[in-house]
Give the backbone structure.
Amino acid sequence: MLSLPLTNIFVTLALLFWIFAGCKPGQNWLTDLKNPAVSGALLLLVWMLLSLLWSHATLQQTLAGIWKYRKLAFVPLMVFLFADAKWRDAAIKAWLGAAIVLMLYALIHILPAPIGDGHMGVHPALPLSTYSYITLGFVLIPALTVGLAWMMQGRAWLDKALGALVALLTVAFVVLAQQGRTTYVTLTALLIFYILTQLKSTKKWLAMGVLVLLAAGVGGFNAKVQTRVAEVMADTRVEQTTETISSSGLRIGFWRTTLDIAKHNPILGTGMGTWADEYRKYVVSTPNTPKIAASGGNPHQEYLLMASQLGFVGLVLFLTWIGRCFVGTRSLANHERIAAQSLLVAFTVGCLFNSTLFDSATGHFFCIGLGILFAGYKSVEKSVETKADVKAIYH
């Protein structure tokens, strides 16, 4: 969670240990390849490799674009490595424990200055992490619904207390220590998801009413939230220029141009590693297009990035992968199911406002987390839920 270089080192060490242990996959090769998380990731990676045949970029640029998505290979690796349920449980606990520590640190040492006020979104008072505040939000916010499930389903008081702590810390972290609009939307989406999927009908509508009142209260009394929402509304009404504008204004400019690129290459796209060059053409020809230097080499929208570089076929493969993973969560043990669904909801929402899979930190976290959680996947015909499957997360 804290360091991308350390993540790569530990993944490499894990791979070496796996090789020396005999390279035995979690179940068997055929079963693992039927896993929706594995098959979808590999199919998407294969399509990216095939784009070498029609890419508008040089071979070096295309390979560099594909290399950005090498984290897709971590999904099957994690499935192989985390076949043992004890290791999966340990991974979930480690993630929640690290989330508690980071959020407590942020709330104690950063308030009242929000994380987003620092250089490139990294607050100088948060030396534990080199991530931007957007990445921190993506890594930490899925803990909300896992904590709620822990609180509601736990049998012991410690289960419920720790679950409540995680949930409360996540809300406090987003509202008080964050200023990212993506995190606001993701938090709301996760709360709605939990209410609609985890609560019974009577409690469901009561909880939705409480959520509406809370959202109205935060929006009505939190000046920071009001300012960020007002910026978005203003940016959608004006034509953006190459002058300094807000992050939402930049995104709107990137999205409009990327949509035009996708429209001109609808089926196969322009190929991996081409977005920057294709976008640069619009920067030169269109005076109102935000400059390429502000883009970070991507349009800050994963769906449009997929559509522009991999065409309709690539976008369908991407959406099918995510959709099959959502369906596949029904075959996971209860505590792994809620964690996987939370991760997928955060990812799906995050891709609307950022290139979440393209970005190194968020993409690594998603692929590694998805692989770990789906290591417990069993096909529907073989899945038999036992008492152990519905045990409290803490046990």
User: Anything to note?
Assistant: Residues 115-125, 383-395 have pLDDT under 50 and may be disordered. The first helix runs from residue 4 to 20. The chain has 17 helices and no strands.
